[in-house]
């Protein structure tokens, strides 16, 4: 083990989603806003995408709240398709960093 003398240690350990607004709206939450594969929340008139959304993922083998730009972009397309009445799911298997 190596010991380092430093003035400050900054540790990035992820973040917790702020679900207060979703809870106040009566939406189901569980580590984010629970959505289906078409970005619909427990209120089908309300959609959620991006970092705040906990969505099904066949790749992850369950649900996942993915903090990544491609996830936000791809699920925006899913939400747009849902709004247009042409629900289409997506399989997001990658992200860049
Ligand atoms: C330091 C850092 C590095 C990252 N690097 C990468 C990377 O290399 N690759 C990658 O894929 N992803 C990366 N990410 C993650 C990526 O930025 C996010 O996953 C992505 O931006 C999520 O998009 P979003 O639209 O869900 O949320 P955001 O981009 O966070 O957008 C949410 C917006 O909502 C606004 N907002 C919040 N509350 C309210 C409110 N009550 N009323 C009105 N507006 C509100 C916020 O101001 C913000 O503009 C990084 C994130 C951080 C912080």
How would you explain this protein's 3D organization?
The chain is built from two helices and three strands. The model has no long low-confidence stretch (mean pLDDT 91). A three-stranded mixed sheet has the order 1-2-3, with no helix packed on it. The chain has helices at residues 20-24, 69-83, and strands at residues 33-34, 53-57, 62-64. A hairpin with a 4-residue loop joins β2 and β3 (62-64). It is elongated. It has a domain at 23-83: FAD/NAD(P)-binding domain, CATH 3.50.50. The protein is α+β, with helices and mostly antiparallel strands and 97 residues long. Bound molecules: flavin-adenine dinucleotide. Flavin-adenine dinucleotide binds next to α2.
Query: What fraction of the residues are assigned to beta strands by DSSP?
Result: 5-15%
**Mind telling me the CATH class of the domain at 23-83?**
Alpha Beta
Q: What's the CATH topology name of the domain at 23-83?
A: FAD/NAD(P)-binding domain
> Biggest sheet, in brief?
3 strands, mixed
Sketch the topology as an H/E string, one letter per element. Answer: HEEEH
- Name the strands of the widest sheet in spatial order: 1-2-3
Described by its quaternary structure, the protein is single chain
Question: What is the terminal separation in angstroms?
Answer: 29 Å
How would the global form be characterised? Answer: elongated
Structural Rg:
17 Å
Small molecules bound in the structure, each named once? flavin-adenine dinucleotide
Please tell me the CATH architecture of the domain at 23-83 by its name.
3-Layer(bba) Sandwich
Spell out the CATH superfamily of the domain at 23-83: FAD/NAD(P)-binding domain
Helix content: 10-25%
Please give the number of β-strands: 3
Global mean pLDDT: 91
């Amino acid at each position: 083990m190596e010991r380092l003398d430093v003035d400050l240690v900054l540790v990035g350990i992820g973040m917790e989603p702020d679900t207060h607004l979703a809870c106040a709206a009566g939406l189901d939450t569980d580590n984010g806003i629970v959505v289906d594969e078409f970005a619909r929340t427990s209120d089908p008139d309300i959609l959620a995408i991006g970092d705040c959304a906990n969505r099904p993922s066949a790749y992850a083998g369950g649900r996942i709240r993915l903090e990544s730009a491609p996830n936000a972009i791809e699920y925006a397309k899913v939400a747009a398709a849902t709004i247009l009445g042409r629900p289409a799911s997506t399989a997001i298997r990658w992200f860049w960093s």
